[in-house]
Amino acid sequence: MGGGITLEHFLVLGLILFLLGAYCVLTRRNAIGILLGIELMLNAANINYLAFAFFGGARYDGQIFAIFVIMLAAAEAVIGLAVILAIYQNLRTIDVDATETLSG
Amino acid sequence: MLLTWFPILVTLAVAALVVGGMVTINRLTGPRRPSKIKGEEFECGNPPTGQAWGRFSVHFYLTALLFVVFDVEVIFLYPWAVELRHLGMFGLVEALIFIGILTVGLVYAWQRGALDWN
Amino acid sequence: MTQFNWSLINFAWLPILPLIVVAVGAMGVLLAGVQVDDEDSGALGILTIALLVFAAVLSLLLFGGRPSVAFSGALAAGGYTAYFDLLVLFAAAMTALMSVEYAADQGLAGAEYYALLMFAALGMMLMAAGDDLIVIFLGLETMSIAIYALAGFMRHDPRSNEAALKYFLLGAFSTGFLLYGIAFIYGATGSIKLEPIEAALSRPATDNALLLAGVGLLLIGFGFKIAAVPFHMWAPDAYEGAPTPVTAFMAVGVKAAAFAAFVRIFMVHLGPLGPQWTMVLWVMAGLTMTVGNLAALVQTNIKRMLAYSAIAHAGYILVGMTAAAAPRAGGAILYYLLGYAFTNLGAFTVVVALERRGAIHDNLADYRGLAARHPFLAAAMALFMLSLAGVPPLAGFFGKFYIFSAALDAHLLWLTIIAVINSVISAYYYLSVLIAMYVREGGVEPAALRTRPALIATLVIAAAGTVAIGLFPQPYITSAAGAFVSALGNAPHHHVVLSR
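Structure tokens for the assembled complex are given below, as produced in the milestone run.
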């Protein structure tokens, strides 16, 4: 199936995407940029779910999980943007380093 | 081969006919008074050009946030649609409960005035 | 046409009745709030408490029930689920009770606040009940998203904004690890239900590298949620900036729910992998206790101090998990969480009592001379600090006692020694609060308590529980141990152990 494309190909793709997302989260100072990185990580997990569902014996669980992850990504984006918007209204910036009003 | 793709061919033909017909009828019968504003590109009611970092109304965010949630929730209906016959009445009741919960969210947003533009 | 397919609704309604009450109640409060002025939100608070208590009564009825599964194995019912349901509902009701006057004073819009509180409680109950990684994950996210919003509820306060942002960004980051980990476990075992996952562990065909990668990522994800070192950096800022009742709920409810799922996954179902993950937990527990306590020593803000204290207590509970090999460990953890809930809710209620709109008064210096002005408040705070420090015969003492005994049962001598040393260190900063209240002079005059009956009620309940659970630990430790055994009962292969 899939013309020589194996499970490993998908796992490597997922890993690359996950690492890119994590790198983005750790290096960005802009809150929206961090949010983008997190979305990449969630989608990396999704690729793994679908790959395991396709190549493994259990057909549905992984696909259903992927749907839940898509829904979660949307819900998290919404709550994240709402939080970022509230910060922007108060501080006029969304740079996470500029929001240091709490000590530490 | 042809037989399996025939319905698609029919769909394409009907689509082309309907769209082509509408455009032609418009062109033949409609009044034509072009103006500068009418000639502009249409961009959802916004001014079509300007600074990339220009500000726009906070209402857009609110509507967008609401849209994202309701837009994505619908994907839960796909698995139900795929297994519609097998799930029967049980699936229908479950889907109605799900849509009911979504409606509570919509009613809340509406009552709080999130849908009012002004 | 299709007949009503009865075979598909063979799930039991009864075990999820508390969940339904909280879910429908939360939606009801949300819609009712639209009709109610924000000034009258106290009534919604009372309604919320009533609904939570009703759900708790239902959970209590389910407590003695036979371990069973509902929704084709997605939800586990029985003592373990009911125990954590009760704990979570209690924490939510106490949070609502301490918020009634606070919300009015701080001008928090009411309905959304209480509705979010109930949605968070719903997520926590799902985490406790989940016998399926999807359900646990969904519960975790339902809880987290509600708590993100609650942490940032004071929209015009930059401190609250920042708390929400940090909690959200690191929480979502940890979700990424959790999901990626679950994906690997699913890939290695072919299932997302805990039962078949456990069964797959003993199959030689199971891909061990994939599985261990998944378990490791899962540990990181849970590490973030329980604020274990080195994944704790969000906690002090989130605890300090969030509205104080929300901080209390984070410290008690979120922690209890996270441990409910953590313990069920690792101690009940991943037992066969024990040697691998207890090694990691050993290090995590030691670091969490030590870093939490040492950092708490130098704090001048009481909410920050309690945040580091909460980190340290997560470390003690991790000692209990490291001792998974000891039969007593599970019950000890559950008992610890109960005593910790009463004590911490009480301590945060005192912090709420000193707060007034525009004057936060959450520095240690503000507590100076409190005993002279408000003997009742100071005595209550002293009680909670002593319990957190682990002074007998309070709830905190027996919690530590049972956990450390279990650790010794499991031959974790060095970890127990580290834990005991940490307990001694922690006494220093807990007692410094007492010294400020009883020996020093100055500080601030808290708002009159007499006009805040709900706050007094919260304090009395918390204090009574802290004393009662400590003075008469036997019924509570028995229930806790029974609840843990019932979780084992949800897993069929453990039945042998039960019937013996």
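Residues 2-29 of chain B form the longest helix (28 residues). The helical segments of chain B are 2-29, 58-73, 77-82, 84-111. Further analysis is deferred to the final report.
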